[in-house]
Amino acid sequence: MALITNIDPQHLCFLSSILLISTLLYFYRSFLRKPSNQYKLPPCPPSLPIIGHLHLIGPILHQSLQSLSNKHGPLISLHLGASHCLVASSASIANEIFKTHDLIFAFRPKFTYEDQVSLYHGCSFLMAPYGPYWRFMKKLCMTTLLGEQQLHRFAWIKQEEIRRLLRRLHKSSQDGKPMDMDVEMRVLTNNIICRMAMSTRKREGAINEAEECRELVHEISSVGAKMSLGEVLGPLGKLDWFGYQRKMREAIRSFDELMERILQEHQSRPHNTNEDSDREHKDLMDILLDISQDEKAKVKLTHTGIKAFLLEMFSGGTDTSAKSMQWALALLINHPDVFKKVREEIKLMVGRSRLVEESDIQKLPYLQAVIKETLRLYPTFPVLGRECTQDCKIGGYDVLKNTRVLVNLYTIMRDPNSWEEPNEFRPERFLVNSKESIQNQIMNIDFIPFGGGRRSCPGQSHALTIMHITIASMIQCFDWKIHGENGATTTVNMEHGSDLTLGMAHPLVCLPIPILHSFVDSM
Predict the structure, then answer these.
(1) Closest CA to 331 of 424, 406, 256
(2) Is the pLDDT of residue 337 over 90?
(3) I want to staple 190 with a disulfide (CB 3.0 to 4.6 A). Which of 202, 214, 264, 496 is the partner?
(4) 90/73 Cα distance (integer angstroms)
(5) pTM of the entire predicted model
């Protein structure tokens, strides 16, 4: 009885609902579905009649799926309460999904709760079905918003914000105060995106639109991750068991009001009569507003669509890049030999009289290898969701229409059949001289930290640039001491966090030690 009385009533309700819906699904699968002998279905691990495979899923999803795939094969079938999905865990299977059947899998699965919480229903780019709106927005991203030319125009913003970060690190060193690098990296990425998107940033000692935006996006992402667990309830997931839907609606409404205010400010600003000069000074919101007024555009972009796109840009580009840079810094601290090689490369190719710049990246192959190896080991989104839109065959098995598929990038990029010593941090594996070897790696989809196919991340060029110049600058200017809970330690705890995005379980708290005093002091 003591165990029962200590359980929160909300969780009892939650567990009871799982019991009810899973039981109904069990009878449905037993008596109403098509006979399974008509199809060659992927293998299914032993399950319980009530909860399916839920008891096999631990707090860290990608590692639980990896363990199941290691035992049962690269394509398996799972029943998680009311939710059914396939799990793909090999490069060959991913190749069929992202290349052979890319169009069939060009849809993201829809969450049960979406219609209950979103103010932007029908305007999402990331969740939109593959069709005219999605193709219009993808082309817009790749050619106009996040294309090479536009990102080059924003290079000065990235450099300026990185200098501000380095000044904060230098001050913390002078004060003898360790820095929480999670906070610092998120402030950096948020400021860069805010300035690129709407010409605003977090001012020192003040809370403005950029800081408000960062807090709201973090709230939306955190609550959304918790709500996604309700998929195990099926239709009952629409019920707001723990108040998450209410929190999500409030956060999105606040974000919408903030974006609407900034949109109105942008519309009221006078524009330069010189078109070329005007284009140079436009942020992404200006560009989106211009497109919304273009009568010749194939798709009408509304204010709601603009706000939805900006929310997804902030959600996908702030915490994700920040987490990747933390992993990179942690790996370098734990591998001083690699750290030394990166610093020597920067010293040789850039020197000690100026800061690393975006144009230097191509001259720093070992730095590039470090970033690739970081993303291989710690992809920010370790598991990607797709939905099959028609019957097809994957890996010799039948995959039926409307089946959800989880592609475990984490497992694929640690597959011993593709990588030697797959769990070891070895940047040298990416220093390949043979163009043929590199091409084979790309074709086999062994390395896919940003996903694959039509729906791969459109912001990967921006993310990679930020990672390269930030990590290079921090190595160029500082040594690093780790600050643990009980004082200084020598290595970083690399335990995984339990979020859907792959972050560190323990804060990365460091004390930066300047090595270029005159250079850092002058910034």
Answers:
(1) 424
(2) yes
(3) 214
(4) 9
(5) 0.89
